[in-house]
Amino acid sequence: MSRSFGSLEKAGKHCGGLLAMDRRMRPHLPDGHRWNLSDAILDTRRVQRDTQISFAERMAEPLLHIEEGLAYSFTTLPDGRRHVEDMFGSGGVCNWRQSLRAALPYALMLKAGTTITRLDTAAVLREMERDPHLAEAFRRLDLSRQWRLRQRSRTLISGAIHDGLMHVLLDLSFETHGTFGRFDPMPVQMTQEEISTILGSSTVHVNRTVKKLVADGRLRRRSRVFEIVDPDRERQRLAYDTPSFPAIAGKPALVKEPSA
Fold this sequence. Notes:
Elements: E1 9-10, H1 19-25, E2 41-46, E3 51-54, E4 63-68, E5 71-76, E6 82-88, H2 96-99, E7 107-110, E8 115-119, H3 121-130, H4 132-158, H5 161-177, E9 186-187, H6 192-199, H7 203-215, E10 219-222, E11 225-228, H8 231-238
Antiparallel strand pairs: 1-2, 2-8, 3-7, 4-8, 5-6, 5-7, 9-11, 10-11
């Protein structure tokens, strides 16, 4: 069931709602650079239950920043099935690309317990014009997201279901921790049905695949907490990497991880 923004529980307006964004941006900013989007903050809210927001009829939505939790975007196909487009965790901006073009039929599912900060899109764009370092960080994060999306699509199209599931878990790990290369145990907030929708498979098949990965020693699972046993090996096997970017003053270049 769709809900309007007005039905979300408010958690108050404050600048601290962008700390997760800062963690994602920091590798893409000069050392010591300070950026400020406090004037763009509209409010910060927490959802108590899974909450769907529709963007189908809106042309100028606020940007939605995930401070904590998880969301995913999707479209509903003519036959009623859902196509999950992307996932957004701590520090992610859910509708950045949609804000830059005419709206398409599109929805966002905020998972229970997620905290979001709404940002005025025009104010963010004005600050990016004033601060080119901020604009460049946004650009790099967007390119990195598109890179991950293309990699995931490649695996889902050409790989076996265990490859697709492992790739989705690697992406969820990135979104959970907000940084590339960190693969600590993570609570998976998406249901098995939602993950099966991403994989284009049945929940029964996904459940069997999880059990097989656990039995093979590639995955550990404690209820809804998952841990990839050897993430470096899984990354190499799936050619899962990150794009390279030119060096920023005072920082080494962000170089693409070698693919197997």
